[in-house]
Design a protein that fits this description.
421 residues; FAD/NAD(P)-binding domain; eight-stranded mixed sheet; 12 helices; 30% strand
């Protein structure tokens, strides 16, 4: 039998896996973080070419409790208002942070910046062993552990064993496939084109979600006159769209969005990804737990994906740390309780995003008029607007209590600073 090499192994060192590694190592678990790609600490790209991530107000609360917000996000762009509309119709809905008594509904942060600073903090954790340029393969379930083979390109394989294996290895999750966990896939037959754009007028903290016949369009605040764009095109039109010149692409964006931000004057590098709902039939199998996109991947409408994943992270951390370090973090009863606890929020968000996409996609005039009336009614019916706003803020359900873990992180940080001085 392979001897235990750590308490918890995390496959995938993105934002979900990295956040789990930080918190679990601080809590006292022996953690191994395995990331297939070598992370390169490079200078921050120009704003026009930077990829960004939208964090809800609820996500800020979670990251603050983990001691990861201050300094990690730099100076995030603040979303104080959200404007939801349908092209060609008078109805719209406006969401305001002031109505919720909060400084912001959400924040927009450069992805490379937050990941780079997260890795900088992981470097100083005594309980964390990082394996970069490696993948875990051939997981084998035993009664009290999961064994796996650690593969590195050009090197001999080694072996590992842990009480709990967290699969944070993305939408195509190799571990999910190896475990035989099936997925439900709804292909939207659309592709998202991500880019940053420069506009004539300052955005003033307003994020825009605009539904059009061709698909949703989102614009999120960045710099004073920069927005992060998520532009949806039909899959069979992608090649023609990407062949457009910069001027033609900006003109297409202008036609779809209008002139609330004046003219669009520049667009950065474009990144594309196909849009589909991918939902795993089970989140755990034995001592392996799927997290992040390995568990489910959502349409980016309303920016729910990573924020839902972060609530899953917080709930797991609450479970694993509220009574101190657990002797067996991969116990079947514990993982079953976690999955049952998170099921309702997860499925509510799945339905919420899927319904938005499908309800606003049809081109029939009658449906379009009904949608416009619905948006207008939502803007004036306070209880419904409150529910819709709380969903967008990531605060429609209870946020996990991470105060015990927060206290441990503060003590560990103080100890590290004392040693450094």
């Amino acid at each position: 039998m392979t001897a235990l090499t750590e308490d918890i192994c995390i496959a995938g060192g993105g934002l979900v896996g990295g956040t789990l590694a930080w918190a679990l190592a601080n809590a006292g678990y022996q953690v191994r973080l395995i990331e297939p790609q070598a992370y390169v600490s490079e200078e921050r790209p120009l704003l026009i070419n930077e990829r960004s991530i939208a964090l809800s107000a609820g996500s800020r609360v979670i990251l603050s409790q983990l001691g990861l917000w201050d300094g990690l996000a730099g100076e995030p762009a603040t979303i104080t208002d959200v404007h939801v509309s349908e092209k060609g119709r008078a109805g719209f809905t406006r969401l305001h942070a002031a109505e919720q008594g909060v400084p912001a509904l959400g924040y927009v942060v450069p992805s490379s910046l937050i990941l780079r600073r997260l890795y900088g903090r992981l470097d100083g954790l005594a309980n964390l062993r990082m394996e970069v340029g490696a993948v875990p393969a051939m997981p084998a379930q035993q009664s009290d552990r999961v064994t796996y083979r650690l593969q590195r390109s050009g090197e001999a394989d080694s072996h590992g064993a842990c009480r709990l294996l967290l699969a944070c290895d993305g939408t195509q999750s190799p571990l999910r496939s190896l475990l035989g966990i099936e997925t439900r896939r709804n292909d939207y037959e659309q592709v998202a084109v991500l880019a940053n754009v420069q506009c004539e007028k300052p955005h003033q903290g307003v994020a825009y979600e605009r539904f059009t016949d061709e698909g949703p369009l989102a614009l999120l605040p960045l710099g004073e006159r920069h927005m992060a764009m998520v532009y949806t095109v039909e899959a069979d039109q992608l090649e023609a769209f990407l062949a457009l010149s910069e001027a033609q692409m900006l003109a297409s964006l202008q036609r779809r969005f209008g002139y609330r931000l004046g003219r669009f004057t520049a667009i950065g590098d474009r990144v594309t990804f196909p849009l589909a709902l991918i939902d795993s039939s089970a989140q755990s199998r034995g001592r392996v737990l799927l997290m992040g996109n390995a568990a489910r991947t959502l349409h980016p409408v309303s920016g729910q994906g990573f924020n839902l994943a972060l609530r899953d992270v917080a709930a797991l951390l609450e479970t694993l740390t509220k009574n101190g370090v657990l002797e067996d973090p991969g116990a079947a009863s514990l993982l079953a309780d976690f999955c049952a606890q998170r099921h309702r929020d997860q499925q509510n968000v799945v339905r919420f995003t899927d319904t938005l996409v499908r309800a606003f996609r049809g081109r029939r005039p009658l449906f379009s008029h009904l949608r416009a009336l619905g948006l207008q009614g939502l803007d004036h019916v306070t209880p419904l607007k409150q529910i819709f706003t709380r969903h967008n803020m990531g605060m429609a359900s209870r946020l996990p209590d991470l105060n015990p873990l927060q206290a441990q992180i503060r003590r560990n940080n103080a100890a590290r600073q004392k040693v450094a001085s």
